[in-house]
Amino acid sequence: MYACDQGYPAVDCFQPDGTQIGACYSAVKLRNVKFNKVTSTSQSPDCNGCCRYVVATGESQTGTFEAWRDDYQLWCSEMDGDNCVRGNQSCEGYFAGPLSGSSGTWSLNEFSGFLEVQCCNGTCSDNSFVAVLNIHVQGGKTDAAEYTNCCDQTTTTTTLSAELSYDYTWECRHKSRWTDTCPCDLMQESGTETVYWNVTACFYNLCYPDTYPCPTVGQGADYAGPCIIDPPVIQYGSTLEDAVLCSVVGNNGSLEDIVCG
């Protein structure tokens, strides 16, 4: 987040146009997700002999869902003699929740996934099939984040929640390539991934802004909180989103490994 003065004159305690006044970091990661093989051929009627897996649930699930969030933004400003004293409100959080189910302050609200073979391009008539991995998980921990308010020098515990939707579609291959294929063999095949994640904690939409152009002169300050002096430390704010997906050399995008078991 950057200051955007919209032509207002610089005054004491005022941040120059273009100065960074806030930032956000968020990330999610799934580790050691366990899948169970479905042996019934009716689960893959178009490809008898092709493997199908679904995520294990309950105590047999060994995986974890991790999430991080680290935010700050300029919020407090006051004159101390000839000096301008500024402070940030901040929010930091982390959890590693078990995919086996809810426990204590951890709630697993949604967990589903499969690895299976499907018809390629909607038809199986040419014996061309495609392997698909799909995982969706959403959960939160009520005491995983801390919010610090520089205005009153307080720190409170709050909820950190996260969601991840992950899809990986391998390239179409003849049915013979997928028959009796273990998941680990799929790491040698190329494909396309689609990833969506969201980590929420204290600051609404600081990590995931829509388009917030600087408002026109006369609309008032964006941050009119009780600690902002007059004139405000931030007259206007603009945001810039920079999302980076994890990439592991030698593997497929964010997918680090598939292990046969």
Describe the model.
The chain is mostly beta strands and 261 residues long. The protein has one domain. The protein contains one helix and twelve strands; from the N terminus they run E-E-E-E-E-E-E-E-E-E-H-E-E. It has one helix at 175-178, and strands at 2-3, 22-31, 35-38, 52-55, 64-80, 83-98, 106-119, 128-149, 154-170, 173-174, 191-200, 237-238. The strands form two sheets. Strands 2, 3, 4, 5, 6, 7, 8, 9, 10 and 11 form a ten-stranded antiparallel sheet that branches. Strand 8 and strand 9 (154-170) form a beta hairpin. The two termini are 46 Å apart. Residues 210-231 have low confidence and may be disordered.
Instruction: Tell me the total number of β-strands.
Output: 12
Question: Main β-sheet: number of strands, strand sense, barrel status?
Answer: 10 strands, antiparallel
Shape summary: elongated
CA-based gyration radius: 24 Å
Q: Roughly what fraction of the amino acids lie in strands?
A: over 45%
> What integer is the average pLDDT?
78
Q: First CA to last CA: what distance? A: 46 Å
| Annotation field: number of helices | 1
Q: Look at the helices and sheets and give the structural class.
A: mainly beta
Poorly predicted runs: 210-231
Helix-strand topology string: EEEEEEEEEEHEE
Task: Give helix % range.
Answer: under 10%
User: How many structural domains?
Assistant: 1
